[in-house]
Amino acid sequence: MNMPEVGLIGDIGATNARFALVQADGSMTPPRVYALNDYPSLSRAIDAYLAEESPTARPGQAVLAVASPITGDQVTLTNHTWTFSIEALRRHVGLRRLRVINDFAANALAIPYLSESDRVQIGAGLPVSDAPIALIGPGTGLGVSALIPTQSGAVPIPGEGGHVTMAPANARESAVLDLMRKRYDHVSAERVLSGPGLVNLYATLCELAAAPAAPFMPAQITNPRMWDEDPRTLEATAMFCAMLGTVAGNLALAFGARGGIYIAGGIVPRLGSFFAGSEFRTRFEVKGRLRGYLATIPSYVIVRPLPALLGATALLKQP
């Protein structure tokens, strides 16, 4: 579908904001990435982007996918200090129309447009057409959403499922979570299933072993070159995959997601074959009497970069 004007799309996470323009013919310009900490506000980051990408042709409409619950005009990022008024931002940029949606709702909207090369299946199962689809994604935080079929098309369900209480599945995980509960008033799924969550898992495993924890970043913990040097980095990575299976299985049950469960975010695609061979799929299916039900549900890792921009583009093209 062609649009009468240029549109702005954005994916604003807790660390980076990514912007692109959708041209009148529906094509997308290559995204540009802006670190949130380099700008005092979202409006200033958009100003910088438009000054670089489109100093003369201003967009008339925009869809911004934001890592935050959208409950009214005022939006505050969950894991960053940026806050803004949707209407004030619309006026500042000079937009005729501005839609702000949860970032994982945008990821969910992208799913129908993914090609086979955009996803990698983990385990068995076949999708049921016109059935709900669930989405989970560990990154700086833990995003959760779903896509529900309706007579007028699929509808994304935004939510804050990353903040559900994390439950252990074995004694080792109980020991880890018990220790974490001494530091946090609420140990959510995001406390372990995110970049900072990987650091939490590693540090807690070191504490249980009475060993010093190195000041590793998440990418170092999941780096195979570190696993022989510090075996607790390997255990943290393996526990992360298993716990993600537990939460993903819970999500599939909650939504009846027989259309499949999709994994987005920046962490899991980098794990590659390790994730495929991890306990993720076993833990996804191990739900007692519902094991057979879950065994039929396929799970996929989204390997396409920035799928939220694809979902934002789809929403931008809607009348």
Question: What is the gist of this entry?
Answer:
The protein is α/β, with parallel strands linked by helices and 319 residues long. It has helices at residues 42-53, 86-93, 103-110, 171-181, 195-208, 218-221, 224-227, 231-255, 268-271, 273-276, 280-285, 291-295, 307-316, and strands spanning 7-12, 16-22, 32-35, 61-66, 74-76, 83-85, 97-102, 119-122, 133-138, 142-148, 155-158, 261-263, 299-302.
Description:
With 319 residues, the chain is of the alpha/beta class. Helices cover 36% and strands 20% of the residues. It is built from 13 helices and 13 strands. The model has no long low-confidence stretch (mean pLDDT 94).
Q: Briefly note the structural class of the backbone.
A: alpha/beta
**Strand segment count:** 13
Oligomeric grouping of the chains = single chain
The average pLDDT is 94
Write the element-wise H/E pattern from the N-terminal end onward. EEEHEEEHEHEEEEHHHHHEHHHHEH
* Strand arrangement, major sheet: 8-13-12-9-10-11
- Give the overall shape, derived from the CA principal axes: globular
Q: What integer value in Å does the Rg equal?
A: 20 Å
Q: How much helical structure, as a percent, in the residues?
A: 25-40%
Question: What is the terminal separation in angstroms?
Answer: 10 Å
Number of helices: 13
Q: Point out poorly predicted stretches.
A: none
